[in-house]
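Translate structure to sequence.
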């Protein structure tokens, strides 16, 4: 079910068009487009096996139709994110381009924030604490053509060395 929600409030200096709200399996997805071309998808509820497919579809559409502002997934009102949803985030990151950055907003100390850190996704996908920071970063530092949209993945703390059988081992 999709219904407009005229109460959605934009960030400072970012007038947004009318919001589209989708409710499914314990999650509410609100999608807006700011006047600067940012696609913002806010999730209220839980992201799990049943609510992840609608999120995947929304992110695919936002990335495919979005302008140069990029796509921001706002998880500040998300209580839980499970492994299926983490796969959706990886897919969105892979589908984004250097000109159409995918960013995540996750409040410090929340389960989504901890899950992003534990899995290492926060090292690959830009993660911000509040929506205004994500939108400000997208405006202030758009990626240059031919450069990566996200910081490089951190290397392992200890190097791996092949053993006599060719298997990787840690010293």
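Result:
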């Amino acid at each position: 079910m999709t219904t407009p929600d005229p109460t959605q409030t934009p960030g400072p200096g970012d007038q947004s068009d009318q919001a589209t709200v989708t409710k499914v399996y314990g999650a509410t997805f609100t999608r807006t487009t700011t006047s600067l071309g940012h696609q913002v998808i806010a999730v209220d509820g839980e992201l799990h096996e049943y609510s992840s497919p609608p999120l995947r579809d929304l992110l695919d559409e936002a990335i495919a139709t979005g302008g140069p502002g990029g796509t921001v997934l706002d998880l500040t009102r998300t209580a839980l994110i499970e492994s299926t949803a983490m796969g959706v985030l990886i897919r969105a990151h892979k589908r984004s381009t250097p000109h159409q950055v995918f960013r995540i907003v996750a409040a410090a100390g929340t389960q989504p924030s901890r899950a992003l850190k534990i899995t290492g996704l926060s090292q690959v996908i830009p993660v911000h604490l509040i929506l205004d920071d994500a939108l400000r970063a997208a405006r202030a530092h758009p990626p240059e053509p031919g450069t990566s949209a996200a910081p490089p993945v951190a290397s392992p703390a200890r190097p791996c060395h092949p053993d006599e059988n060719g298997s990787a081992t840690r010293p």
